[in-house]
Design goal:
The chain has 327 residues and is an alpha/beta fold. The protein has two domains: 155 residues, Rossmann fold; 117 residues, Elongation Factor Tu (Ef-tu), domain 3, CATH 2.40.30.30. Helix content is 36%, strand content 27%. The strands form three sheets. Strands 1-4-3-2-5-6 form a six-stranded parallel β-sheet. A hairpin with a 1-residue loop joins strand 11 and strand 12. The chain is elongated, with a radius of gyration of 23 Å.
Length: 327
């Protein structure tokens, strides 16, 4: 996937384009990207995404901006997984915010992005004062020769799939619900760095993951899968928080204990998938109480994976039985 930061490059081919923040790349976003690829194949266009950095709400009202579900890198990786070939990352600043809706259409969509087909969400607005809307785009498309279509919201069991809904599920510790909205378990990427070796002192070595989320959408202790090591995911438990029982930290850190694992993995870039919340982060009176709780967390984490493995085996057996019966 080709990524352009800003608009110094004209799209190499005519595009089918969608525009949005794509925070978390949930099922609603993925439906949009599926449609994007369908149009790209049908009309021989380059499937292209225009996204923003920072999030416009971080620019206009940083004190009330929503918690980020994904960093820019994580977002781009997810978008690439859905078949997009070109992404423009627009630096959202004062100059860009001042663009009129008409300038946005003529200078960016037509001149730079060479749009031939535009797909937008049903609530998309753009340009200074948010004057641009679907009607304005459709009128511009008639003048300049590009098609415009709106994608309606995706719902799941009657709930509108949105980044806000994912944030709410994560904040409540409802990991399975968040995974359903995302179409995959929620995850955070980061690189393994050297820590203070406190985990080793407590008898549970941990990988300290440097994350770019200064305000992650979830906190606590979780059963996790870790990818990025030897092909197969590794199971473990993770603490994402400020360590109130030790030296309380100014920003959350992510520490992962992998079951039955002792290999040196400093410098590795890992993907941590949060599958099930075990508990909130709490303060313990001494290291012995903390050590006892960590042992209980590890035991509960292993029990979760054992139950999960049994459920997967039962489902597989049931599906195989149905397939044989149907045959």
């Amino acid at each position: 996937m080709l990524v352009y930061r800003g608009f110094s490059h004209v799209a190499p081919n005519p595009t089918v384009l969608t525009i949005g923040n794509f925070d978390g790349v949930h099922l609603g976003h993925r439906a949009l990207l599926t449609r994007l690829n369908e149009i790209a194949v049908r009309e021989n266009l380059l499937p292209t995404v225009l996204t923003f950095e920072p999030h416009p709400r971080e620019f206009f009202a940083p004190e009330s901006a929503p918690t980020r579900l994904s960093t820019l890198r994580e977002k781009l990786e997810l978008i690439a997984d859905d078949g997009v070939k070109l992404v423009y990352v627009c630096h959202f600043n004062t100059r860009f915010a001042a663009l009129s809706a008409e300038e946005f259409i003529e200078r960016l969509l037509i001149a730079q992005l060479r749009v031939r087909h535009l797909i937008i969400g049903d609530d998309f607005c753009f340009g200074a004062g948010r004057r641009g809307n679907f009607a304005l785009l459709r009128a511009a498309g008639e003048r300049h020769g590009f098609q415009v279509e709106a994608m309606h919201s995706v719902t799941l069991a009657g709930e509108r799939v949105s980044s806000s809904a994912v944030r709410s599920a994560l904040a409540a510790g409802e990991m399975e619900h968040a995974a359903a909205l995302l179409g995959r378990p929620y995850s955070i990427d980061g690189r393994v760095v050297r820590g203070d070796r406190m985990g080793r002192q407590l008898g549970f070595a941990t990988a300290n993951i440097r994350i770019k989320h200064s305000n992650p959408p979830l906190l606590g202790v979780f059963a996790v899968e870790v990818r990025g090591l030897d092909g197969e995911p590794y199971q473990g438990v993770a603490n994402l928080g400020i360590r109130p029982s030790a030296n309380t930290l100014p920003r959350p850190i992510l520490e992962v204990h992998l079951f039955d694992f002792s290999t040196d993995i400093y410098g590795r870039h890992l993907n941590i998938r949060f599958l099930h919340k075990l508990r909130n982060e709490v303060h313990f009176p001494d290291f012995e109480a903390l050590k006892t709780q960590i042992a209980a967390d590890v035991a509960e984490g292993k029990s979760y994976f054992h139950r999960r493995g049994s459920e997967v085996t039962q489902k597989k057996s049931h599906d195989e039985f149905k397939a044989r019966k149907k045959a």
